[in-house]
Predict the 3D structure of the following.
Amino acid sequence: MSQNLLNISLSVDKEELRELIKKVIEGEWRLYLPQFQRDFEWDEEDIRYFFDSIIRNLPVGSIILWKPSRNIEEDPFAVPLIDLDIAEQTGESYYLLDGQQRLTSLLLLYNNWSIYRMKTKISRSIISYVPTQNKLILGKKGGVNLSELFRGYLDGRFDKVVANYPAYKNTLEKITRRIIEYKIPIYTIKTLSEDDNVVTEMADAFVRINKAGVRIGTVELMLSFLAGVVSGDFSKQIRSIHRELENRDLDLNTLIRFILSNFGVKQTVFSNVKRFRSNVEKIKFSGEILERSKKAIKFTMDFLHEELGLSTCKIIPSKVSIIPIAKYFYQQQIFTSDNLSENERKDIINWFMIVNMKGYYSSSTNSKLEKDLKIIADSSGAFPYTNLLDNIGERYKIRKADIEKGDGVNVLKKQGLQY
């Protein structure tokens, strides 16, 4: 048997939702969101559809947990799934690799549609069950708050909750029990070490388990494992910069890649655990570099908003395409639009559009990105548009048909949901 497989264990169980919530709320499972999975994005309609599927006993996906060899609490970028008022938690710590939307929805259901995460409130409007129509609705008009039904049953107050609906008591209990007793698959991955091969095997296991869901690669997993290598002050500053850009939905991995590049870390080490660790451990903290990096990335966001109306990074196909632009602004110390000529603006936007339309960074990301960053580092003066296009290879023309192809596509819709 491969030594890599000996370092990875995968178990699967089915857990009733009431037991799952109990483990999270009571701290038996201390769940943390890794840096590549941060925001809760579901709106009330998504949540309503989720619980409607549960009531109909339809599959709703799985929960995937990862227990690495090291202490997750050492990861400065890991975020607790929910803030708990528990003095001492002695349970097991896990990364929540997949299932954040589902678990957060369940916690909202348990807590009357409001929870706190890192002291930030997450709330959604009430979802109710209308017994006369046998359906879930947004709001409470004509229905019973689904959270009150759920919590009332768990806390032994169900009769009080349904007191105004004597004719529908059995129906309401049946619906509530369908949610409480629904079983969801829980995949738990445990690793005894996290070298290159183990992380690759683990990423492969994740893809096999989660073919229809969010894709996680070796870089994301490796960054989650090695985040603890980043020193305290350094990580606090990175987290602070990320918080300032939260309203732009900037991916933390993209920010880390960019900042580390300014400290001399090459993008090609992101595919090698040992080299990555070695490079990061050698970094000497510099407030000046971090401040300059912050100015560059913030101006990059402002620039893309000014030129393309992009107020969020969510709809950018290739998030790493932000990095070369930010690197150019960092290199040239351009932090306001006044320092950019009209030709430079056009060149930057044209390059940005081409790499995203072509999907240039979708393969060999690390080597392509490092090659582009080197061109920018070696350039002086204007944005090196021609040299960057040469890196792409064949010239790419954006045709009218390419634009028209996207006319009927809503890029804000989420994968895996019916609309």
